[in-house]
């Protein structure tokens, strides 16, 4: 029996591993990164930016008068 790091091959074949986040190379990794960045960018504790309604990939900051 071959050991695969922390579990045996039998355990590996009969177990399910839950991923807590995206992995490099996973097709959802870019989306998960963008969602996480967006949450940080628009939060007041984070960067306090506004997200464009026309293009969600564009972030901007308003000045004190509320003008972009």
Strand-helix topology:
Blueprint: E1 3-4, E2 7-8, H1 9-14, H2 29-42, E3 50-51, E4 59-60
Write up what this structure looks like.
By secondary structure, the protein is an alpha+beta fold. The chain has a domain at 22-68. Helices cover 29% and strands 12% of the residues. It has helices at residues 9-14, 29-42, and strands at 3-4, 7-8, 50-51, 59-60. The strands form two sheets. It has a two-stranded antiparallel sheet with strand order 1-2. Strands 3-4 form a two-stranded antiparallel ribbon. The longest helix is centred in the middle third of the chain and has 14 residues, at 29-42. The radius of gyration is 20 Å and the shape is elongated.
What does this entry show, briefly?
The chain is an alpha+beta fold and 68 residues long.
Query: What is the molecular shape?
Result: elongated
- Give the helix level as a range of percent: 25-40%
Give the topology string: H per helix, E per strand: EEHHEE
N-end to C-end Cα span: 63 Å
Record the strand order, biggest sheet. Answer: 1-2
Proportion of strand residues: 5-15%
Quick one: how many beta strands? Answer: 4
Radius of gyration, rounded? 20 Å
- Number of helices, where a helix is a run of at least 4 consecutive DSSP H or I residues: 2
Q: Which regions contain 5 or more consecutive residues with pLDDT less than 50?
A: none
Describe the largest sheet: 2 strands, antiparallel
Briefly note the structural class of the backbone.
alpha+beta
User: What oligomeric state is this?
Assistant: single chain
Overall pLDDT confidence: 79
């Amino acid at each position: 029996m071959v050991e695969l790091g922390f579990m045996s091959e039998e355990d590996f074949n009969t177990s399910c591993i839950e991923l807590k986040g995206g992995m490099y190379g996973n097709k959802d990794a870019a989306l998960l990164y963008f969602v996480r960045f967006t949450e940080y960018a628009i939060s007041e504790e984070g960067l306090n930016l506004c997200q464009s309604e026309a293009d969600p990939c564009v972030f901007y900051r308003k000045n004190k008068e509320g003008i972009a």
